[in-house]
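Q: Could you write out the predicted structure for this multi-component system? I'm mainly interested in how the pieces pack against one another.
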Amino acid sequence: MASPSRPHVVVVGCGFGGLEATRALVRDGFEVTLVDRSNHHLFQPLLYQVATAGLSAPSISGAIRHVLRREMRSGRLTVLMGEVTAVDAAVRCVVIDGHERVGYEHLILATGATHSYFGHDDWAAHAPGLKTLADAFDIRRRVLLAFERAERNAAQAGDVDPADLSFAVVGAGPTGVEMAGVLAEIARHTLRGEYRRIDPHSARVVLLEGGPRVLAAFAERLSARAQAQLAALGVEVLTGAQVTAIDDAGLDYRRAGDNGDREHRLPAHTVIWAAGVAASPLGRQLAQATACTLDRAGRVLVEPDLSLPGHAEISVIGDLAAARSVDARGESVPVPGVSPAAKQMGRTAAANIRRREQGEPTKPFRYIDYGSLATIGRSSAVATVELPRLGRLNFSGLPAWLFWLFVHLYFLIGFRNRMLVLGDWAWAYFSFERRARIVIESPPAAPSGPAT
Amino acid sequence: MASPSRPHVVVVGCGFGGLEATRALVRDGFEVTLVDRSNHHLFQPLLYQVATAGLSAPSISGAIRHVLRREMRSGRLTVLMGEVTAVDAAVRCVVIDGHERVGYEHLILATGATHSYFGHDDWAAHAPGLKTLADAFDIRRRVLLAFERAERNAAQAGDVDPADLSFAVVGAGPTGVEMAGVLAEIARHTLRGEYRRIDPHSARVVLLEGGPRVLAAFAERLSARAQAQLAALGVEVLTGAQVTAIDDAGLDYRRAGDNGDREHRLPAHTVIWAAGVAASPLGRQLAQATACTLDRAGRVLVEPDLSLPGHAEISVIGDLAAARSVDARGESVPVPGVSPAAKQMGRTAAANIRRREQGEPTKPFRYIDYGSLATIGRSSAVATVELPRLGRLNFSGLPAWLFWLFVHLYFLIGFRNRMLVLGDWAWAYFSFERRARIVIESPPAAPSGPAT
């Protein structure tokens, strides 16, 4: 497929890492084939807004061909929609949908992560996670139907089943905290006065965290701020709570009490999973094919320059990679699974391919941490900003929320989406409305797949 | 369920007719229960824009509870999400989802229409129709995946299967004409330069119509204008073409040739059904339960006041009703299946319930025809406007398109949506972009249903 004069690079996955690598490679004159199983790039940090009916799907996603329309015009980029099911490193090709083979001279794997239920895959049916637009629609449907079911049951039976109006969020990282905050806001404000037999305000939102505090990646002071803010929104926060079972009526958890650990039951018809993350299954196939090593989360251990040990022509980036960097004090640290890290890895992997083609030595990946952000409900957030030479700045509340808003709008793909999302948000903020409260009637027919 | 002091009216279906009736009844002090199988009111005239990736679903739909929030505040309205599966006219109750019974003193049935394949139900799998948001997403997925499939096949096999890039639209009423026009626009403008191996411009869009002309409800002169405009957009229009078979590789049709009727084959992997409409299945159940009469399209024959013969307490409105009105010359004419007619029937049915409660005689329904509109591509339309005393005004082209734009924005539910839709359109018009080109990865899990 590649033009004979230009080395051919295959990039698998069009998340933040794959998109950034593709852009750099096309700019540097490479022949690039980008393969993704979906037709769109997704701005995952705002996916919780789609799940909670605040934004429509097109507001946070763009067709890959449209996002990369400038690169398409170069005549050096091919975009193929399909799932890479295997890498055949011996003959240097990827296999798409089990049967089509595309050869490469260099390969970048950026297929990201999925949720992990820590060996309890049966929990998936009761507690959806949030990684794709399909996940977001599933959660949106469950949340909206829970209120409808409660109203129906109350109209018929005359009383409300508390489990109908109980929402459990498992895992208090940024996604769990954001979901819990918005759910509380929906119950208390958005749906107020819209039901006859139930009081949405009586809904319970419970956030369960196995560790000792929420937002563990942040400073302890910010965790405490975030927990206080969640409580003010009406969210019940249970830290040190280990979920031991999930079924369609609720969940069991173990938590330290006065007399040691105790088992508890939380009846809740809606459970959302924001706890575990595992690398995409392509990592396992790669481990079988190349004898590379995976960490416990299924991520591929890579060389300092992000290449696969023994296969300099293969780079692994983003959430699929267990990469290490060197911090300001010269210590080796793991690279976190956040979008700025994926973008930086995409640029480094592309630059190292250019260096290898030019006969130069590759450079090790160096992660630059600009800080972290998490939002809590409608006007609060926590922020950690790394300032060059000045060190780390922690802040919270409205200033952190405004900063969060600015950063997320700035990084949204495309000027148009940005203005529309800002319009949606401004309206939602002042009206307490959420405009995407739409449950699709019946699941659309299965996609026929691009190659059948 | 009803307060003892107020007569209880059940309204089934929250389309244009049911929504209008509900508003009038709550205003008049009735206790109302509105039952709909979905959680949203849909602005169906713009559904083709969702199917062709121009608008997001929330732009043309609103949660019923939100649309009716003022009525909710009256304390006289209950909204239940569920499907009315039967009417038990003898004991005056409706059955929801096969098991829950809700009694009524007055009943308004407004469950609308669905597509009809004229006895060929096996065509449904190959040629989806366009009535619900789920239908629109299905069509959107098929259209976008057709181009992706063509690019994949071209990259692998080196040539393009013309059937991959052939789109057939069956039926040249307003929906079929709108779909065909937009599909041609997508192929010629929106996707230009975004593929490497295929030329989207080479896509064929074929519009097949069994009758002698497109937009048969309009004057002949406007039909001719519309057909010329479609041809200018690159749509192949085949009138007098009777579809005789549809499968996953294309369709067969019969058409008059020089030597009599001839059978033809049109290879096309994407077929869209815009030909037949049938009343919702509740009509058949009603016919069995009350011995009322249905017309050939399954619509319920009603009295001049829209009530069911022999059941003055049941009214049937909108696309479920085969109603007649009296035109300006005093002749009896059938009421067309358009949204203004449904709204007018909703108001008449509500007013007649009020009259019956006050002991007054009911009034016959009188349809006021304000005209008809159909749009063709990005800046053309045909319009027929009925002017009081001045008669009928026919016009086409840009003036008709601007009029169409104004009317559709004016009638869109809610100020906010209207502004967002206008913004989307303005952007799409000048940029040729369509912002909702998103295929959801995998079908979301089946909804658990509100009552389970």
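A: Regarding packing and overall arrangement: The domain at 8-37+82-116+278-369 of chain A is CATH 3.50.50.60 (FAD/NAD(P)-binding domain).
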